[in-house]
Fold:
Amino acid sequence: MAEEDAKRALETAVKNHTMLKDQLQQKKIINDGYQKQLEALRTERTTLLSNISALESSCGKCPSGFLHFNTSCYFFSYAESSTVKKNWHDSRTDCINRGSDLIVIDSPEEQTFVGNNVNKMVQGLEIWQNGFWVGLTDMDTEDHWVWINNVTEVEPRYWMDGEPNEYGIGEDCAAVVYSSSNPWKSRNDANCQRNELYWICEKVSR
Structure:
């Protein structure tokens, strides 16, 4: 009798051991799953923090393709494509489509910034065919140059020697061209419709 009781007790103990072993294995599988989920969440958190950092660093700056200077963002079309050129009107349309407009240069610092960038981009290329349209014209009144924000241009020192000269065919739009000697003296007038050049857009930084 005692032997049978012991045998049954042993069988029960073996069953309990097997059951506990199975439960432990299941818990290990569940725990491994939790560990994998935790690792995935940690990775996702790291990615989110990285994205937040990137957004914070770009906040107050410029969209892709634009350069930041002072409080504005600038798009130099040559940097996107050295083969695409447009007339003045189509260039302005492109700027507007980018949420900006043709550049208005209203300080010596901005003039130097623009001149230096143009010089870096088109150095060695034909000067007159590789200028950059800006938002300055005398379309309404000949020799009365006005920016697209309705501010009259009063700085003749920025024009290249002999410019603006109208050149007999009607040159009512201004462009910035390569100037090796002085980035301040870099403006030239060109035909708004016939001449196809690069262009510079400007928008206020966020």
Notes: The chain is about 40% helix and 15% strand. The domain at 67-204 is CATH 3.10.100.10 (Mannose-Binding Protein A; Chain A). The first helix runs from residue 2 to 58.
